[in-house]
Amino acid sequence: MPTILLTGTNRGLGLELTRQYAEDGWMVQACCRNPGTADELNHLQSQYPDNITVHALDVTDANQRNKLAKQLADTPIDILFNNAGIYGDGQHQQFGSSFAYVWQKVFETDVIAPMQMMETFKPQVAMSELKLMANMSSKMGSMTDNGSGGSYVYRSCKAALNAVCVSAAKDLAAEDIQVAILHPGWVRTDMGGPNGELSVQESAAALRNTLANFTPADSGRFIDIDGSTIPW
Ligand code: NAP
């Protein structure tokens, strides 16, 4: 059975992706910041004890990343899925209210951490069959799609993540490792809010479909939830 390592599985899309991959028989290395309080994830793990292993991982913590990589040194990871992300304090997203610390925190979580996860777990991905690194971006990182302005911090960090992923797609192609840049749609989660267009079930199913049909030509492409290409 293939293995997926997912970050940010405590709630939202990460939790639902964990559920769907486990239901489908995959081995899921489910990472979250605080396993002790991850009640829904722990309940899910008890339903699929053979498929789900829960790990403590704050993606910004190098010691935790390295410790987990050591623990999984001999485990091929077919899909490394960088899902964890933050929007950043809403009070500092508008023109006139920028605040360096908020920006740095989002950059650390949404850009540096996915990059370092790809660097840290490259050996495990390289020894797998699928050799895929998936990154949860957002259409809000698209310059072309920016029709409303604002959200300076989140938009710029997802745009930076896209730049990181394009380079990684090129650099890792020689080793047959592919890099997915995914927009999950506007989803009803804590981040997306109650007015989102998609349920987590719908979004996770569509994301899984995209990854199941992934080809080398898709590596480094900015992929919408319906499979179409989002312009940068
Ligand atoms: P969410 O409900 O807010 O969940 C975010 C998850 O990320 C939580 O599990 C959270 O952990 C985790 N996380 C945050 N910082 C972390 C860190 N330093 N280390 C480890 N985990 C961390 O958000 P979501 O809607 O599921 O979003 C998932 C991804 O999709 C994000 O990358 C987001 O930018 C992207 N996205 C979402 C939408 C949408 O409409 N929802 C649209 C476009 C893109 P805790 O539970 O411990 O806080």
Please tell me about this protein's structure:
By secondary structure, the protein is an alpha/beta fold. The protein has helices at 12-23, 39-47, 62-71, 100-126, 152-172, 200-212; strands at 3-6, 27-32, 52-56, 79-82, 132-136, 178-182, 222-223. Bound molecules: NADP nicotinamide-adenine-dinucleotide phosphate.
Helical amount: 25-40%
Strand order of the largest sheet: 3-2-1-4-5-6-7
Largest sheet: 7 strands, parallel
Instruction: Pick out the low-confidence regions.
Output: none
Helix/strand order: EHEHEHEHEHEHE
What structural category characterises the helix and strand content?
A: alpha/beta
Anisotropy-based shape: globular
Percentage of β-strand residues: 5-15%
Summarize the topology:
Layout: E1 3-6, H1 12-23, E2 27-32, H2 39-47, E3 52-56, H3 62-71, E4 79-82, H4 100-126, E5 132-136, H5 152-172, E6 178-182, H6 200-212, E7 222-223
Parallel strand pairs: 1-2, 1-4, 2-3, 4-5, 5-6, 6-7
Helix pairs in contact: 1-6, 3-4, 4-5
Short characterization:
This protein is an alpha/beta fold.
Features:
alpha/beta, 232 residues, binds NADP nicotinamide-adenine-dinucleotide phosphate, seven-stranded parallel beta sheet
